[in-house]
Structures are given as C-alpha cells and as structure tokens.
Amino acid sequence: MCSGDLGGGDVLDDVAALVAERNRIDAALARCVRAAELSQAPERDGQKSMASWLRGHCRLSPAEASRLVRNGRALEHLPALAEAHDAGLVSAAQVAEAARAVTPQRLASAAAQGVGLAVIDAVFTQVAIDQPHGDLVQVVQRYRDDLDPDGPEPDPTEGRSLTVVKHADGSRTFHGCLDAVGGEKFAVALESFTQADRPAGDERTRAQRQADALVQLCDNALASGGLPTLRTVKPHVAARIDLDDLADPAPGKGAAILGSGAVISAARARWLACDGAVSRVVFGPDGVPLDLGREHRLADRHLRRAVELRDGGCVFAGCAAPTWWADVHHLVHWIDDGETSLENSALLCERHHTKVHHGFRVERQPDGRWHTWRPDGTEITTPSPLLAPVA
Description:
The protein is globular and about 65 Å long. It is an alpha+beta fold. Helix 1 crosses helix 3 (62-77), helix 4 packs parallel to helix 7 (117-130) and helix 9 crosses helix 10 (206-224). It folds into 4 domains: 13-151, no CATH class; 158-224, no CATH class; 228-278, no CATH class; 287-391, no CATH class. 45% of the residues lie in helices and 12% in strands.
C-alpha cells in the first residue's frame, strides 16, 4: 500500500521506490532465467527452451517470455549495465533495448572490427541511468549502424518477421516487417483485392478495406485446395456448434467454438456453414465424441477430428501447441496391441510426441484432465495461480 497524502510527495517517493524494487526483481529474474537456460533446465519438463517453459508454466506472453530470455543473455555481456540493473537504476525495458546490440551476430561483428565492448557497456549504462528512455534507443541504434555501415547482406529472410497475437475474444493483431521485395509482393497482392472490392457507397476506411482484402486473400487460398496439408488434413476453418443452436434462427451469442478456441455467435457459425461442409458429431454425456458420421469409409480423418475436438491442442503439461502442429498418439502403442480409437488417443505436438516415445507419459483422468509424468515417475505440474500476499 502507498503511504502519505495523495496531494503530497510521499506517494511519489513510494512509486519511485517500487519502480527501483521492480527493477531489482527483474534483474534477479533475468539472471535466474539465464542460469536455467544454461543448465538446460526446461528439458526436465519436456520443453525445448526457457521461452516455451515460461509461456506454458508461468503463463507469460510470448513477447514477455522472449524478452526475459534475451535480457538474461545480454546481462552476461554488459556487466556494468547488469550491476545498474541489480541496483534498481535501470529497467528491464532499458536492458531489452541494449540487448539489441549484443546479439551473436553483432558481437561477432564487433570482435572482427576490434570494437571494445567494455566502452559500449559503460556508455549504455550511463545513458540508461541519466537520460530519458528515448535517448538510449537512439544510442543503441547508432552503435548498431556503426557496426554495419553498409547495411545488411541481401538475404531477404533476415529482414522478414511476422508476429500474430491472439486475444481472449479470438481477434488477432499483427506486427511485422518485410524486406523490399517481399513487401512489394505483399502490397501488389493485397492491392488487387482492395481495388477489386469497391462497391458503390462504400464507406469503409482504407485500413478497413485492406483488412477485408487480406481476409479475402486467405478465403481464396483456402477455397482453392492448393494449400499444404497439415497433419494429413487440408487446412480448413472449423466451428463446433450444437445442432439446436445451428437450426435456431436467433443470433445465439457465444454458441460456437472455432478450432483455435475462440467463441463466436451462432449467427456467424451459420454464415460459415453456408459456404462449407457440415459434419455430424454426436457427443456422449461426458463430452466425448461417440459418432463421427460417415463421410468416407476410412475413419482416420474422423478419428483425428474427434481427438482435436476433445483435446483442443497438445495435451503435454505446459504446452499450448495448436491442433495443426500435433499428431494423434496411441497411448498404448499400436505394436503393443493398442487400438486406433478415441479412448486410446492423445493429441501431441511433434516435440512432445517424441518425448512420450522416450520415457515421458501422458494420461487422461476420469475428470477429462490430462496429466504428464517425467521418465523418473514424477509429475510435471504448472504453477497454481499466484497467491495474494499475506497481510
């Protein structure tokens, strides 16, 4: 709790003290994350990296998990900045800016050019302590430019990135960067759809028309049937809805579930069904699919659909891999007379499918929850929600 009169300076002192304390905690956390990374600790829980472990076991966002890992690595190369961070004088955001200058590629470039990292460390630290955040951003950028005055090599993949963030309501936001050639291809393709869809009286903004064009581009790619197959299934948009809600003319807000787990209205599900195939899936009283319809003689596609509907993604503890990254795993191996059935199946991403074939084990409990065990027989658990501090 903050102390003092809100109109006075005491509360501001409290704020400054808390910011410094947070900085110290962030420094300790980054160092601990780096120590765990160096010891390959995530492997114990079947994860390939600290970033994936932080996402699955500590419920951090992908961006925050990655920043923590990068900061831990950067502190090793910038001891003066690390000391200031430990003292609470430098924030995690400032360390993240400095981390952009000490990537493996830039460290190699600095060594090749005889650039002394100790001097850079001292400059970064002084600017971070004494000057606004924006000044540090500029100093780091100038250092990066000086290391590579001629610009990057013409490898387009190094200049491309795309981050897609899914929000609680199923909507998505994008942040990306394309090289000149890739950007030109994207702009030309998008503009063709943007210009082709300009009905009379259209009041959409340019941004709205471009977003609609991007969705249309995806619609056309999905409808063409030419996209790569994902885990034996052609890419498709799936929506699960009760038959009564599908037939009911009411909007039915929150009545359907997309493959990603996003919830949409029955009206939007009916709209999707107008241009897609409808398959009947009958669920038992425990929510497990019983009858998958008979579109084809072979049941492989239908069994996979049932497993996807039941599991929703990789069931390994701490993993959030989507269905299209996952294989259908036999809990009792087929070679050991295990049946190819829903009861004997689990959805596992490629990495965790391999882990389960090398000593890890997953098991579905009667309540429908999945549990995961290490090769030594101990269970992998994700942390419980953080407890409120004791007064």
